[in-house]
Specification:
single chain, 414 residues, alpha/beta, Rossmann fold, nine-stranded mixed beta sheet, 9 strands, 43% helix
């Protein structure tokens, strides 16, 4: 009886049971907004329903109660946020978030090994990450204690012709392996057919950088949201170091950046810190991790996190230093691009739309699907290739893409 009760009350079981009603509620809202002139693209379809349901089920499956915070975790995370807020305020980082970040050097002791995945030859590039949180920052010692995370990793796929432009790609949450990353970014198409050099950066605490006892990406979605802040700061630092490695060897090369999901957040952050990028493409981007943690947490976790200050106004203020909704992208609006799914229940379409607004409403494509549906949406591939061509990174003909109006974008955000 106890076993049956624990199964029925398990957040994963509850979440899966709620997936269908939540999907139905989303489709009802989509149907209502599809009647707004210019928002006809929101009209629900069987395919959209399936993708929304998949997102809901995947999110439910992630709510493992064994990973829920203990009371000690809540207290520590709340104390870290309060101390960070005081430090940020004293050092002026709340008013000038960009000043939180330093200027990384070109990497030293770079090693390159040749490997193969998905019938694509690539170079596995590693170098010591020189990133460290500032002295005295809450969580600094814990972050530096993640030993494997102190080595940066990247997968490099070179074009057949020398002297071609570079595209830095940043994967999503839970990824960080060649098989997943090269497939998600269609490495063969971008490199072999469109002639781009690719550098796919591995995010902190992912793939070979993950904690010994953790799952890939776990450090970005725990109650210790100061860890997530350090993760973004280190990601931007390491990617900027990798760009310096590219420019050291090819000073005249054009370099763009393209990220997916958590990588979309990171690409937008990096584009706000790094000069001279040819373009920035944010796909299905998360843009506010504190809000996502609040949104996706079970009620009891969210309530206790708010009570202890691990979530709330101070956490939101502290995260301003790594927020793509606060920092300004350096590429001009005509070189900024976004795409998102109207049924995205993970990063959510609302977060993508906030970045679109902050970026002065650049070109954006919406596809009728959920978070993982971007891979199957031909309109997304066309949009990315058109963006690259318009910035001079490729020589392909512009494609016809799914591009919706601002009124549709507003209606699409649930």
């Amino acid at each position: 009886m106890q076993s049956a009760r624990s199964i029925l009350t398990d957040p994963r079981t509850v979440g899966v049971a709620q997936a269908a009603p939540r999907t139905a509620a989303f489709l009802a809202r989509s149907w209502a907004t599809s009647r707004i002139p210019g928002a006809e693209g929101n009209r629900p379809t069987v395919g959209l329903a399936a993708q929304v349901l998949l997102d809901e089920v995947l999110m439910a499956a992630m709510k493992n109660p064994r990973l829920f915070p203990s009371e000690e975790d809540y207290e520590r995370a709340g104390a870290d946020m309060a101390a960070a807020h005081d430090m940020w305020q004293a050092r002026g980082w709340l008013d000038d978030p960009a000043s939180y970040h330093g200027n990384p050097p070109a990497p030293d002791r770079v090693t390159v090994t040749r490997e193969r995945a998905l019938n694509v030859g690539y170079e596995h590039v590693t170098f010591p990450s020189t990133y460290e949180p500032h002295m005295g920052e809450p969580g600094r010692d814990r972050w530096l204690g993640y030993a494997d995370n102190r080595t940066a990793h990247a997968w490099v796929v070179r074009a057949r012709q020398p002297g071609q432009p570079w595209l830095v790609c940043v994967h999503g949450w839970g990824m960080g392996t060649p098989f997943m990353d090269l497939r998600a970014f269609r490495a063969r198409r971008l490199s072999r057919e469109l002639g781009l050099n690719l550098l796919v950066a591995v995010l902190p605490l992912h793939g070979p950088r993950q904690k010994a006892d953790g799952n890939g990406g776990e450090g970005f979605m725990t109650i210790d949201l100061i860890d997530a802040l350090h993760g973004f700061a280190q990601a931007a630092w390491d990617i900027r170091s990798a760009i310096r490695w590219i420019r050291f060897h090819e000073p005249e090369a054009d370099v763009g950046i393209y990220g997916l999901s958590l990588g979309g957040y990171t690409a937008a952050l990096t584009a706000a810190l790094e000069e001279g990028l040819a373009c920035v493409i944010a796909g299905i981007p998360a843009t506010d991790l504190v809000d996502l943690y609040r949104r996706h947490s079970p009620v009891k976790v969210r309530r206790r996190a708010l009570e202890t200050g691990a979530l709330g106004p101070k956490a939101a203020a502290v995260h301003r230093v790594v927020s793509p909704l606060v920092l300004t992208a350096k590429p001009p609006p005509e070189r900024r691009f976004l795409f998102a799914g109207i049924g995205d229940r993970m990063s959510t379409s609302r977060q993508a739309r906030k970045l679109w607004e902050h970026w002065d409403r650049p070109k954006m494509a919406w596809y009728p699907g959920g978070h993982v549906g971007f891979f199957f949406a031909g309109s997304v591939s066309n949009f990315v290739e058109e963006a690259l061509a318009s910035c001079g990174l490729t020589a392909t003909e512009p494609a016809t893409v799914l591009s919706l109006t601002s009124s549709t974008a507003e209606a699409a955000a649930p």
